[in-house]
């Protein structure tokens, strides 16, 4: 069976009511049929649910589907994407370990690495997404006497710069040095890119984004090698970042349409990117599947489409951004992404406002940068909305001069 069929047909076991749609298992605990069964479940000689902090049928269904989509052996779901990122690090790293990470990271991942793991003696080195193989290798195995990196953590494409990391290259380095290759696959989704096929050991998602796809619930998941998921599960079971059964139920249903939605997201984004690139009042458009993207060839090699996120550069600083956002009639101003509704953000004043000027420069975050999370609306409506707002905001600035 194809993945699309399995994403629709994988379901929790039917109850005696023979329901067609999976019910919500809103229960904190599960009853034991006998003293022996309670004992067997805790000894793990019998498999089954005990308590929803450990497992729950709705959560297991969601995990099974994501493992299937990502070609992963095992997985664990969490209440948010950040809980998944943190569990993957806290469950596997110990004091004295070194983490090599791509510089272009989701803001909270950067805070975990620099402010939290550092308290426990886990050190880090940042590498540019577009660094060469030799530069990555030097960070992983330096000549300074520190141990080889225990984990390499990265996002591709990155937020908001849409830089790509060469997954096959890091897969090769992993074979040589034996670190854990941990990839945040949130922007691409398993529909466009499966890092495990390139040698990644773990793939992480903020399910809040495209997996939900309609801006309703928070959730996260980490899937990958069974022997690595085991210590992450131990960490999560005892520290409690569990995904709620309700959110799991919503997310699992959403996976039935992920393939369909990503197809439309990507088609809309491609067409909008092409239209904006052709417009004289837009200074720059970045989209992985535009030939003008500096890593277009790599994008085509590791992704099946360009994704839903476009960034554009408008001249005129924050004044221009204000006029542009005021003029948009369809797109929402919000810091979220991965929604059926198109969303625009100015990273410089919102999601990335707290970064220092040199950090912003390294990530390409300029005052005129706009991140567009392209939704599922009719593409003609989106192109005309963005075009009129680009023109109106350009005219407004000319009048001021
Ligand atoms: C949103 C996001 C996260 C964090 O996920 P939450 O569900 O908000 O905790 C992590 N990584 C990336 C790439 C994201 O976009």
Write a structural description.
41% of the residues lie in helices and 13% in strands. It is α/β, with parallel strands linked by helices and 401 residues long. It has 2 domains: 3-255, Aspartate Aminotransferase, domain 2, CATH 3.40.640.10; 258-400, Aspartate Aminotransferase, domain 1, CATH 3.90.1150. Helix 4 (81-90) crosses helix 9 (226-239), helix 6 (133-140) runs parallel beside helix 7 (167-177) and helix 13 (317-327) packs across helix 15 (379-400). The protein starts with a helix and ends with a helix. The model has no long low-confidence stretch (mean pLDDT 96). Bound molecules: pyridoxal-5'-phosphate. Residues 80-82, 106, 155, 159, 184, 186-187, 206, 208-209, 218, 220 line the site of pyridoxal-5'-phosphate.
Fold blueprint:
Elements: H1 3-9, H2 35-43, H3 57-70, E1 74-78, H4 81-90, E2 98-102, H5 107-116, E3 123-127, H6 133-140, E4 151-155, H7 167-177, E5 180-184, H8 189-192, E6 202-206, E7 220-224, H9 226-239, H10 245-255, H11 258-277, E8 284-286, H12 296-302, E9 309-313, H13 317-327, E10 332-333, E11 343-345, H14 357-363, E12 369-373, H15 379-400
Parallel strand pairs: 2-3, 2-4, 4-5, 5-6, 10-11
Antiparallel strand pairs: 1-7, 6-7, 8-9, 9-12, 11-12
The protein binds pyridoxal-5'-phosphate (PLP).
Pyridoxal-5'-phosphate (PLP) is lined by residues 80-82, 106, 155, 159, 184, 186-187, 206, 208-209, 218, 220.
Structure at a glance:
Its cofactor is pyridoxal 5'-phosphate. The protein is an alpha/beta fold and 401 residues long.
